[in-house]
Write a structure and sequence with these properties.
alpha/beta, eight-stranded parallel beta barrel, two-stranded antiparallel sheet, 16 helices, 14% strand, binds ligand IDE
Length: 453
């Protein structure tokens, strides 16, 4: 499985190497210092919603340990750090009042990063909607576009000149498919009618934030999408039709409107009577031009026709010939190359891309052994996906950087702490951090611009 070192994988000068996290997954202290509750505070404290009853109340205690974690980033040779801001820490009710103590946490974090020469990449929204806004309908309320732009303006103005690269929304598809269609994620709704409306408002909010950024902000702004390429299970027409439905529902639902193409035709077939039309002015707002696009990439899928699989009528066929991670995701690096080439084409080759998340969950022990965490599977996954990324650069795709998911083992949403994605291990009993072998490799990759691969 381990590939040999050929030295042929030197990355372009200026390629940005970093790691990524999200507020609710690492910070803990989510209600401290005047913060308001988010939908994940509510969801994680709702019996039956979280594996083992885990919550984000403590998580990685990053709210208190952020200095230690910046030191960790320097030991990893990170050049950048992708993090998200907790909206309800900054605006407890999601609109109106600003909580200065909440804003101060991010102020300290950003200054701490800059002092160490680490570029802050700030995501405005990584799933933790203020509960007070959910009480007003949340993503189902069209007013959320203005609420979100107002929230963005607070950050754009506060961190102007210090944060140069902004992401509006992390993974609209997961927000909507998980939170409104299937209900596995907060706020736990299960409705195709709601999903269409929520998805549209997520996109409108993105557009409104980009417009506001152009008025008050400075730097570059983009959105972060999860794309999981769909390969046909067979050459049967019904399997190709299923593949197209799955591609439309996951990979095009949000990408196409962002590119000014409106919703993909197949969405009518997927959502049926729940599908609805929206005014052109919405689509004009949604397609407000951005400066870059983030790709969160983990795996591919091979769907077959499945009439009973609501609403897409497609079901992935397990590719038993390849390894699968602890989250059940197939390890298939060539699909990362394919996705990057596809996305480059879909965005007209004019939008710089960044791999804003890539990583893998494997079993690691709950504590270090002789001061080490040996994670050979994660080392292999990292090596082979960086090579696949390099192959995409070689095919002419403009990729500006790579953010490993994740800096730390953390709360894997409703799976709790059962899945470890970190290149750094966290002992959740002691909060002790230990850089894993994968993290040590990554530090070497950064130091050698990839030549160690
Ligand atoms: O699951 C690992 C990470 C997660 O911890 C991040 O917060 C999130 O941004 C993230 N997105 C994906 C890829 N998308 C996805 C697809 C199906 C279900 C859940 C996530 C993986 N991950």
């Amino acid at each position: 499985m381990t590939s040999k070192n050929t030295g042929n994988y030197r990355f372009p000068e200026g390629f940005l190497w970093g790691a990524a996290t999200a507020a609710y997954q690492i910070e803990g202290s989510s209600m401290a210092d005047g913060a308001g509750a988010s939908i994940w505070d509510r969801f994680s404290h709702t019996p039956g919603m979280m594996l083992n009853g885990d919550t984000g109340d403590v998580a990685c205690d990053h709210y208190n340990r952020w200095r230690e974690d910046i030191d960790l980033m320097t030991r990893l040779n990170l050049q950048a750090y992708r993090f998200s801001v907790s909206w309800s820490r900054v605006m407890p009710e999601g609109r109106g009042r600003i909580n200065d103590q909440g804003l101060a946490f991010y102020d300290r974090l950003i200054d701490g990063l800059l002092e160490k020469g680490i570029e802050p990449l700030c995501t405005l929204y990584h799933w933790d909607l203020p509960a007070a806004l959910d009480d007003r309908g949340g993503w189902l309320n069209p007013d959320i576009a203005d609420w979100f732009a107002d929230y963005g303006q607070v950050l754009f103005e506060k961190f102007k000149g210090r944060v140069k690269t902004w992401g509006t929304i992390n993974e609209p598809w997961v927000i909507v498919d998980g939170g409104y269609l299937h209900g596995a994620l907060a706020p736990g709704h299960k409705s195709a009618f709601e999903a269409m409306i929520a998805g549209h408002n997520v996109l409108r909010a993105h557009g409104a934030a980009v417009k506001r950024f152009r008025e008050v902000g400075e730097g570059q702004i983009g959105i972060v999408l999860n794309i999981e390429p769909k390969y046909p299970a067979s050459d049967k027409p019904e399997d190709e039709a299923a593949r197209k439905r799955a591609e439309a529902q996951m990979n095009r639902w949000f990408l196409d409107p962002l590119m000014g193409r409106g919703y993909p035709e197949e969405l009518k077939d997927v959502y049926g009577e729940a599908y609805r039309e929206f005014p052109q002015e919405d689509f004009d707002l949604i397609a407000t031009p951005t400066d870059w696009m983030g790709l969160n990439w983990y795996t591919r899928s091979v769907p077959e026709n499945a009439p009973d699989a609501w609403p897409v009528r497609a079901r992935p066929v397990k590719q038993i010939q390849h390894a699968h991670t602890e989250t059940g995701w197939e390890v298939y690096p060539p699909a990362l190359t394919d996705t990057l080439v596809w996305l480059h084409e879909q965005t007209g080759g004019k939008l710089p891309l960044m791999v804003t998340e890539n990583g893998s969950a494997w079993y690691d022990p709950p504590h270090a052994i002789d001061g080490r965490i040996q994670d050979p599977m994660r080392v292999d996954y990292l090596k082979n996906h960086l090579k696949a990324l390099h192959d995409a650069i070689g095919k002419g795709v403009d990729i500006r950087g790579y953010m490993a998911w994740s800096l730390l083992d953390n709360l894997e949403w409703s799976l709790g702490y059962s899945k470890r994605f970190g290149i750094t291990h966290v002992n959740f009993l002691t909060q002790e951090r230990t850089i894993k072998d994968s993290g040590l490799l990554y530090a070497e990759v950064i130091k050698t611009h990839g030549e160690v691969l």
